[in-house]
Amino acid sequence: MTLALYNTLSRRVEPFTPLAPPRVTLYTCGPTVWNYAHIGNFRTFLFEDLLRRYLVYSGYDVFHIMNLTDVDDRTIKAAAAAGKRLDEHTAPFVQAFFEDRDYLRIQPAHTYPRATASVPAMVRLVERLLERGVAYKGEDGSIYFAIAKFATYGRLSRLDTRELKLGARVASDEYAKDDPRDFALWKKAEPADERVGAAWDAPFGRGRPGWHLECSAMSLEQIGQCCRTETLDIHAGGVDLIFPHHEDEIAQSEAATGQPFARYWLHGEFLNVRGTKMSKRFGNFLTARDLREQGVDAAAVRLLFWQTHYRKALDFTDEALAAAAVGVKRLGEFYERVKRETRNGKRDGRLAELAGNFESDFRAVLDDDLNAPRACAALFQLVHDGNAALDAGASGAAVVIEVLDRAMGVLDILPTIRTPDPAFVRWVEEHIAARDKARKAKDFKEADRIRAELLARGVEIEDTPSETLWRLV
Q1: What mean pLDDT comes out for the span 298-323?
Q2: What is the model's pTM?
Q3: What are the C-alpha distances in Å from 389 to residues 331, 336, 366, 462?
Q4: Please, are residues 178 and 161 in contact by the beta-carbon 8 Å criterion?
């Protein structure tokens, strides 16, 4: 099989063929840094991480761009409410996003263009649209895109544009669905914009960019510089961005360049908390840093997310997260057990056979529109069958480790390694020695007491024929 992906533009799963293989240009809509990103945002960012990692696993050379929206209606409003300049308000949330990204083991994009640093590219794009006659200046001094002059408007969202509100305009970044109107490319500067430092000079009037314009300008500028093209291979984001954001991106980009803006459009579904779409109103609003502060292993979050296909809504519950943590622990124990068996050096046998079968299944299901739930099922089947093979004394452990390492390059769900301080290590070793002494003296009550004391400090022990092993849990 070859990789096939569901293209929102065509509404079908299509074989993936980049414009200039092995290079793949990937643009993903990044956070709007007016506040902390919530786990619903990170469900999208994690799906995009899976996509990128699997593209690399499949042999592609990926150039990944993720923007940071640090000027729009929400950032300006939030900065004003905080009594700060725009850059002063957004800076800590940019830093927080990077910290949350690293906690969740999301691989960094190759470049993070910021909207405020890309205004010249946005001005140039507006000028191209004005020259082509698909943009105009409204009575309010803002520049608008005339959607009636872009014949294929609505094809991504399957919007019926037969009843266009000709001449009607919408200046806000987000507006009613199924109500296509000319949207703002460049908004005339208002006193509120000036107060927070969100206004720039342009040939067509002082103002600031519209949200939709920003992504088009930043992505076109980046792929033009790196790859001398005006067409992305893949544009990805959440389903909530299909309309109006991505629809408007297509219109303004293709009207300016005359080229397809993106060949594949991938969209991840929503995340629900306790069966309800996450929102502050319902009191189920969670951020990635909430999970980190609770001591949740990022591997458990990743596994939980992989257990639902990216195009299906995911229900985030405490019970599901706890079950994922158990799965991560089981995987980690299997990995360590197999690693201990690599010392015999044999590369054939039942374990090698299981590893080969798993890798074939792993590729096949991820080639099928990134079917991560089936990839996880295949992984835990390997754990089950591999443990049975180890119990029977099978060989080939080295091959299992190599295959697991390649798979973890995609899923990355092994437990996070916790490095204890030397004093704690000495305490553990002293207690294990005391337990061993008690066992030799057949004082099993004392041995059990020491095991319980170790477990209370997060130390799990395993007795083997040669030694007692321990791990933090």
Answers
A1: 96
A2: 0.90
A3: 15, 15, 26, 19
A4: no
